[in-house]
Each structure stands twice: as C-alpha cells, then as structure tokens.
Design brief:
- By secondary structure, the chain is of the alpha+beta class.
- Helices cover 58% and strands 15% of the residues.
- Helix 11 packs across helix 13 and helix 19 packs across helix 20.
- The longest helix is centred in the middle third of the chain and has 63 residues.
- The termini are far apart.
Length: 630
C-alpha cells in the first residue's frame, strides 16, 4: 500500500474535513508525480470520500435512532407531558442542527394555535404567540396535514402572512423554517418546527426525521390525554364509590335507629333511652333538654344547626316539650338529620304517653291540694299517707304559688271564653308536669292554677316564683305571671296555713298585674312596702333590712351616722344646705355622706319610688329602736 493510500486511511480514521482529502493529490503533483500516479491518487481520493460519506451517514442515522429510542423510552415511562415534549424538541433541534425548535398545539375552544414548548427562543413575544387557524406556515401545515419548508420565510407567498405572526418571527430573527404536522389519525392537533436564523436548505432526511419526532410527540400527547381521562374517570368512580358507601352507611344507621326506637317504645323505654340509642348510632352525644329549642321550634319539625350542634324540637299540639341536641357531629348527613328528627318525634310520643299517665296521677295530686285548701280539718294522718304515695316531702318548707296566663292585648270576639278555657287547661297541664318533676302539687283554681312546691336548699320564695314563671312561660310560649306566698313550714302538719298562703299568693299575683309586670314571678318581699300590705306575716324587720339594712350595718361597723343623715336629708326636703344646718356639720360633710349612701343603696336611691320606701323603712327602723330602748 502506497504512502498516499495510508494518508487517506488516516484522514478517515480521524474524521477529517472534506477539504483535507485534496492534500495528498496536491503534494504528489508538487513532487512531480506522473499522470498515472496522479490518476490513481484521484481515484483513491474519491473512494475515500465515498467511504467518509457512508460513515457520516451511518453516524447520523445512529444518532437519530438513539434519539428516537430515548424518546420512545421517555414515552414508556410518561409521567410529565411537558418534560417529554421538551425532550423531543431539544433532540430535534440538536439532530437537525438548527438554532431554534418549537411545538405548537391547537386550541379548539379558542379556535387558534398556541406555543406549547420552545427551545432556543430568545423572544418573549414569540414564545407567547397565538396563531389563528390557517395563518402562517404553521396554519398551512395544520390545514394540509403535510410538512412544509421555507428557505426564506418573509419571501414565501404560499401561506397567509399576518402582522402579528410576522412581527413575532422577525423579533425572533428566524429565516428558514421547517414545520411537520402532529397528527392523531386524520386529526391535526399541532405542529413541530425546526428553524434557523439564516437561509438554509432542509434535506429530505431531515424532514423525515422531524416527522418521526412529531409522531412521538403526538403519541405522548394522546397518551397523556388518555392517562388524564383515566385518572379523572378513576377519581369519579372513587367519589361515586365513596358516596355509595357513605349513603349505604347512612341508610344502615337509619334502619338501625328505626329498629332500636321501635323496640324502646314497645318495651316502655324512656326519653333518655332514646337519646342514648341515637347517640350510639350517629356517633355523637345526644341529650334531651326541656329548654333551648330556640330556632328549632320555628323550623317546622326540622333539625337545625346551632353552632356545632344540631337541635330538633320535641313538640306536640303546638306545645314545645323540649329538644334533642346532638353534640360532636357538626357536618351531619341529610339522612342522619331525618333520623334525629324521627327520634324527636318518638320522644314527643313518649312524653305524651308519660304525661297521660301523669295526668291521672296529677288529678290525685290536685285533689290532695284541693283538700288542703278547702277542708284543712281532714285527718292529718290520712293526708300524709296520700302525700307519701305521691312521693311528696310533707316535712320540707313549701311555697304556695298562684299562676295565670297574661296574654297582651286581650280580644273582644265571641271566642274569648273558649280561648280562656283552653288557656286554663294548657296552664294546668304544664303546671302539673312541673309539680310532678319537683315533687309538689298542682290544681286548677280561680281561673288559673295553684301550685304547692317545696323549696330547694338555699332557695327563696321569690326565686321559686321567678323560676316558675320562666318555666311555665317557656313551655306555653305565653307570658305567665306567678305570685308566691311566704314559705309554709310542714304544710301537712298545719293544713290551715295553706289556704292563708294561697290568699297571699293571689294578692301578690294581682299586685304584679296592676304594676304591669305580667309574665314575671315575685313574692311579697319583692314588692317593697306594698309587700307589707299584701303579706300576712307583716315582716317589718325583713322590709327594713331589705331597704336600708346595708346602711344600718355600715353605721354599726364604722360608728358613722348615715341613718340620721338620711332622716335629716328627707326632713329638709332633700336639700344639702338645710341638712347641714340640721346636723350642724359642713355642707361638704353632707355631700360625702350622701355619696357613701348612694354607693351602699345604689344610684337610684333618691328616685321617687325608692325614696318613699326608704322613708317608710327609716320610720319603721326608728319605731323599732324606740320600742326596744328601755
């Protein structure tokens, strides 16, 4: 093998440029080689160039196949569509040796095409470009579903130029552009481009290579769409399955509650048994309360949410008996709401049944109270036996209460008598229920109701009257006025005191109505000096103590003379100047004493009503001191 042939092999081995293959011929001609030698060298050069071209083509095809294989591998593990499309555009740009590559997708909703991925782009305007269907080179490719190439974009008249597209292409500096369609079947979904900022010719192999990348891109988009649809369908199925499971569980709970409530009714269960059963099924805590129906009472039998609780009113015949309150389940399913409402209905039926039985018992209670009022000379032993059967504590102090419904704005129609009769019946029914819960007695009397209730520990007659007015008024949703007597000790030991106490309670009731305090409860002690006139006990000491007792106690503790100052102040027509003359002190001293009295008795102690009571209490206090002083 000649030296020149070895030179060509070296050039092939190191992949020299085409121009380097002329060097052996030039060197041989310069050294005076003959025509035959030069011809042989030329033939060897051509052979070497053919081998070089073949090797170059194989390397290019190997790179293309490697890139296509990598793209197929990306598709097989598709996780992020944007990442796969970006890899396709990057590989297309590298293999075609272009300065820029990009991919656009059609937007059927907007009726145009938008840039999805760009590689090598430097213009923000170009990266955000949107093309109308049929506009620009991309529009031509999308319309015909065929590849198009232009050596010089701005001199090519085969497609529709628009100012927006041309401005963006000029901003990017592109000249030569190749576009191939992204097709799914017969539908073109976008275009893949390769472009240079100088004039160039794209060879047929490069067009085919870009078409292969476009096919991969279309597969990636289709796969991603299918995955998205599959995930969406799976999510919908999961949601539907969750709903089915949830509704199935709710229906099962409703069925369980129905069975358990039916069993409770059949076996004589009580209200708290119902609450316990519903608590277990609904997963919260249900309690029955005689108060707090509130908004639920106005909801027409429906359960309503109050804060984090659900409340269902327990009512019958227009009367609110209480409410079932569910704690711990703020987000309650509608079916579970119906379950709570059904439990409230069962509760009302149980309460009505219990009331029916209780009313029979209360008739007996009413008869006992009637005997105490009308026939106090009955055998006390028999009275106590009857009270014991009714579980009444005859040894505890009791209070007699007179109650009446006071509806505002009375009516003058012919049905007034019927309404009053219905009111008396409703009041008696509510009063007997209250009496039973407090182990007392109740009876209908004088157009209203009379109750004999035991006092609780530390409870006063006035407090019991106010509590009774609130309880009966809340149950009936009408103002109920209640007057109370002074406590009666062991009423069955002294039956005659009950009738006397009832008259006192009635006088107190009448006084409340005359004072326009309908719907309130009070005892004589709440009515000031008027209470002295109403009460049978004439508790003068108690009246004085309630009215000026704090001032008397202050004088005893501090050695002051506030009581005498008040006497002088009222005697002087409530004039501080005349008071200081009466007491022979400075006017500032009078002012300081009056300020101290105001702190003890309250700022309204000089109002006409209170001033009258205070002056009466001062006279009674002075009278008591005169009687007790030797």
């Amino acid at each position: 093998m000649s030296h020149e042939h070895v030179s060509y092999l070296e050039l092939l081995t190191r992949g020299a440029a085409t121009e380097a293959y002329d060097r052996p011929v030039l060197l041989a001609r310069a050294s005076g080689a003959g025509p035959e030698a030069l011809a042989e060298l030329e033939e060897a050069k051509q052979l070497a160039l053919r081998v070089r071209a073949e090797l170059e083509g194989r390397r290019r095809r190997e790179a293309e196949l490697s890139a296509l294989f990598a793209t197929a591998h990306d598709l097989a593990g598709l996780r992020d569509l944007d990442a796969v499309l970006r890899a396709i555009v990057q590989r297309a740009r590298a293999l075609l040796g272009t300065e820029c590559a990009y991919l656009s997708l059609n937007d059927p909703a907007a009726g145009d095409t938008y840039m999805r991925v760009t590689e090598g782009s430097v213009s923000a305007r170009f990266q955000q470009l949107r093309l109308g269907m049929g506009e620009g080179l991309g529009g031509l490719v999308a319309q015909t579903a065929r590849p198009y190439v232009t050596d010089d974009y701005f001199d090519d008249a085969r497609f529709q130029h628009t100012r927006t597209i041309d401005t963006a292409v000029r901003d990017e500096g592109l000249v030569a552009i190749l576009g191939v369609p992204l097709s799914l079947g017969s539908q073109v979904i976008g275009v893949l481009f390769a472009a240079d900022r100088r004039a160039r010719v794209f060879e047929r192999e490069q067009v085919a290579l870009l078409g292969s990348f476009a096919a991969h891109a279309a597969v990636a988009i289709d796969t991603a769409n299918l995955l998205a649809e599959t995930r969406s369908a799976l999510a919908e199925l999961e949601r539907a399955n969750d709903i089915i499971r949830e509704h199935s569980g709710v229906i099962e709970r409703a069925s369980e509650v129905h069975d358990r409530l039916s069993e409770l009714v059949l076996h004589g269960g009580g209200v708290h048994d119902v609450a316990h059963a519903v608590s277990e099924v609904l997963g919260g805590t249900v309690e029955f309360t005689e108060e707090g129906a509130g908004t639920a009472r106005r909801a027409g039998g429906h359960a309503v949410r109050e804060g984090d609780d659900w409340v269902a009113a327990v009512s019958a015949g227009g009367e609110t008996l209480g409410a079932l309150v569910l704690h711990g389940q703020p987000d309650l399913d509608p079916v579970d709401q119906r379950t709570l409402e059904r439990a409230a209905l069962v509760t009302s039926l149980l309460l009505l049944a219990r009331r029916s039985a209780g009313e029979a018992e209360q008739r007996v209670r009413g008869e006992l109270l009637d005997d105490l009022l009308d026939a106090p000379d009955r055998d006390r032993r028999l009275l106590k036996e009857r009270a014991a059967r009714l579980r009444t504590d005859s040894e505890a102090p009791h209070v007699v209460l007179a109650a009446r419904i006071d509806r505002a704005g009375g009516t003058a129609d012919q049905d007034t008598g019927g309404r009053e009769s219905a009111d008396r019946q409703r009041l008696w029914s509510a009063a007997t229920h209250l009496a039973a819960t407090r182990h007392g007695l109740a009876s209908a009397r004088d157009g209203g109701t009379v109750l004999l209730l035991p006092l609780g520990p530390g409870e006063s007659a006035a407090e019991l009257a106010r509590q009774t007015a609130r309880s009966l008024g809340g149950t009936l949703r009408e103002p109920v006025t209640v007057g109370a007597s002074a406590p009666v000790r062991a009423p069955l030991d002294h039956p005659g005191q009950v009738a006397v106490a009832y008259e006192e309670a009635r006088r107190c009731l009448d006084a409340l109505r005359l004072l326009h305090r309908a719907g309130q409860g009070a005892a004589a002690e709440d009515l000031g000096f008027l209470g002295l006139l109403l009460a049978d006990g004439r508790d003068i000491g108690g009246f004085v103590d309630r009215t000026v007792g704090q001032v008397v106690a202050y004088d005893r503790r501090r050695g002051t003379d506030l009581i005498r100052t008040m006497d002088a102040y009222f005697a002087s027509g409530m004039s501080p100047a005349r008071t200081k003359d009466e007491l022979h002190v400075h006017v500032n001293t009078v002012a300081q004493r009056l300020e101290r009295i105001g702190r003890l008795l309250g700022p309204d102690w000089q109002s006409p009503a209170r001033a009258l009571e205070i002056q009466l209490a001062l006279r009674l206090h002075a009278l008591a001191d005169a009687v007790t002083t030797p």
